[in-house]
Amino acid sequence: MDRRSSLKALALGSLSSGVLLDACKQEEEKAPASPPSPIAQWDASSGRLPEEVDRDQKLEADQFFTSHEMVTLGLLADIIIPADSVSGSATDAKVPDFIEFIVKDQPRHKTPMRGGLNWLDNECRRRFDNAFSACTHAQQIEVVEDIAWPSKARPEMAQGVAFFSMMRNLTATGFFSSKIGIADIGYQGNTPNVWDGVPEDVLKQYGVSYDAKTLEECVKAEDHDKIFTFS
Fold first, then answer.
1. Would you state the pLDDT for residue 214?
2. Where are the alpha helices (DSSP H) in the chain?
3. Which of 84, 95, 104, 183 is the residue whose CA sits 20 to 30 A from 221?
4. pTM of the model as a whole
5. Could you tell me the residue range of the domain that residue 221 belongs to?
6. Residues 20-37: what's their mean pLDDT?
7. Is the pLDDT of residue 14 over 90?
8. Neighbours of 32 (CB within 10 A)
């Protein structure tokens, strides 16, 4: 998301120096003080403008979901992305807090999310005489299975399917943009590394291999700083 306005350079035409200086003198005293530029206000440590920080603080100070809804969000998020041997669960990545922020940042999500949570509780009460959060794990999975696969869902599950699809998208976005989610996929970002050639399994997959000259001159980590010439 591009949240910073771009700065445009202003080019002066071929005015004579005399005309330019004269114009400056005439406007010097009556010209109002210019407001500080966005760049002057920009906090380099956070990469954000003051109004952006202020807006986020106001959003975080407000609370949209009830405590009951937050519990339900956490249960659903952990069903979608449970903890495993690689990383923690969605709630470990604070996905419910992420969703709480997103629905306030993008209010179009408020009604579908709250309506979906209500639908989920009503469906569980109809089946098990309990809200989703009070159901057993097996009962929760039974309901989720009925709305998790759009192509297999019954027509009467349409609202639940739409809600769960949104919930799944938000959960994945929140998790894989978190610190533990980024670590989960092994994303390195813009960090220096050493290229040791195409992996052996990929070479085998395409039935190709390096010739002796390439291996000797190019695919050697200890020689990466050298400049090679090819005959």
1. 79
2. 17-28, 38-41, 50-61, 67-80, 95-105, 110-128, 137-147, 158-176, 179-184, 200-205, 212-217
3. 183
4. 0.63
5. 194-231
6. 50
7. no
8. 5
